[in-house]
Task: inverse folding
């Protein structure tokens, strides 16, 4: 627990200047990193994976969120559950592998055994007065949003998850995540504070100069631009793109596919943003030729040209859903200056690698983009360590969503550490 009487955190939060990046300690100070874990990652809904991570009864996966070890398991009734990955005897870790399949959950230390509902069903030599019902696994709040898994470590999780799920369910449902499989998972340790990773994701100001692969399927105008700085030809291109978005939204929504932008990035605890955007070229997928990477569609669509649905959640995820595959990203903080970026590529569960899709073609665009972004995050982290760093202004045309991420972060921190500090 952060010592609230000895830290300058409250004053740093109060003097945060909207429209500007955060002060250096927010990216470098281990004490503020600990505060982030307490106020954000232990109190809000965190994206951790997808139902295809645990497709069958007994399938289990593990992850760490700061000091908390979590396991996610599918029980015999096909329900997905989350528990603290801690034996109730003497605290040993129960499941040691990232993924596996179990009949029951058995502690290797003293063989205490739990069923997939978390009940203690075997504990030798504990005496006649021992009540196993009092020693089941400690549960963790878990919600599935059309196959996307979120956990919350708080005793009382934010209730507005239901509002987000009601709005987003119709957008994600056509992609049928529950009937997908994970084609590939990649873990990348980024050399920067988790907020720098998220800030980098929340803008495409940097895309044209740094992401030649990503800007093949994605239009340059999809995430903001300064109209007064465009020449005549660029203004015409931007206008054509605007018409394409409007026409595409109308066509997709007439087909029953929700597409229009919804944004609640800094006015909800469970903040989110979504929009379905057209893709360039053949317009089918995030691939180098913009054509579908998998021959088997992943979902129910009237056309192969359904653009890309993007979905962002605060504080730690973004997703891209196409007609043939999906890509899900999660960020888990490791320490003040390192973050884990986990990327999962999903295809239909019946798609066969080498027959229905080429794995390299499936992952090329985002493998390259992730590596480029990791380097950029490292540049920012190195700068934040220097004496010359000071908060810089965000572009009102291309970085407004970065500002909303920082607004959301400061609100969560002040609610927890500075509730008497007055209006935000």
Result:
């Amino acid at each position: 627990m952060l010592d609230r009487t000895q830290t300058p955190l409250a004053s740093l939060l109060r003097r945060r200047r909207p429209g500007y990046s955060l002060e250096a300690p927010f990216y470098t100070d281990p004490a503020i990193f600990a505060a982030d874990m307490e106020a954000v990652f232990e109190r809000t809904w965190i994206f951790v994976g997808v139902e295809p991570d645990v497709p069958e009864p007994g399938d289990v996966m593990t992850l760490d969120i700061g000091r908390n070890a979590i396991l996610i398991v599918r029980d015999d009734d096909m329900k997905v559950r989350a528990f603290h990955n801690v034996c109730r005897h003497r605290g040993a870790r129960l499941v040691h592998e990232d993924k596996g399949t179990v009949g029951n959950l058995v502690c290797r230390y003293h063989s205490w055994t739990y069923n997939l509902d978390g009940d203690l069903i075997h504990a030798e030599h504990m005496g006649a007065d021992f009540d196993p019902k009092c020693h089941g696994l400690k549960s963790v709040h878990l919600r599935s949003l059309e196959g996307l898994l979120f956990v919350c470590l708080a005793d009382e999780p934010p209730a507005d998850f239901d509002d987000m799920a009601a709005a987003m369910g119709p957008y994600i449902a056509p992609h049928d995540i529950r009937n997908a499989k994970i084609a590939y998972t990649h873990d990348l340790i980024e050399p920067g504070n988790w907020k720098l990773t998220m800030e980098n994701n929340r803008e495409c100001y940097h895309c044209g100069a740094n992401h030649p692969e990503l800007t093949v399927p994605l239009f340059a105008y999809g995430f903001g631009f300064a109209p007064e700085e465009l020449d005549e030809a660029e203004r015409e291109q931007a206008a054509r793109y605007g018409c394409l978005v409007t026409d595409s939204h109308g066509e997709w929504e007439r087909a029953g596919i929700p597409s229009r932008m919804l944004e609640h990035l800094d006015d909800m605890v469970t903040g989110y943003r979504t929009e379905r955007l057209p893709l360039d070229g053949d317009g089918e997928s995030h691939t180098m030729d913009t054509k579908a990477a998998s021959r088997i569609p992943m979902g129910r669509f009237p056309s192969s040209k359904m653009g890309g649905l993007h979905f962002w959640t605060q504080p730690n995820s973004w997703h891209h859903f196409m007609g043939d595959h999906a890509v899900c990203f999660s960020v888990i903080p490791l320490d003040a200056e390192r973050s884990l970026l986990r990327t999962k590529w999903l295809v239909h569960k019946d798609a066969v690698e080498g027959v229905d899709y080429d794995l390299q073609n499936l992952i090329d665009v985002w493998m390259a983009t992730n590596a480029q972004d990791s380097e950029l995050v490292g540049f920012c982290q190195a700068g934040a360590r220097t004496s010359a760093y000071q908060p810089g202004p965000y572009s009102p045309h291309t970085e407004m969503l970065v500002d909303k991420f920082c607004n959301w972060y400061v609100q969560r921190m002040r609610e927890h550490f500075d509730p008497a500090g007055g209006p935000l």
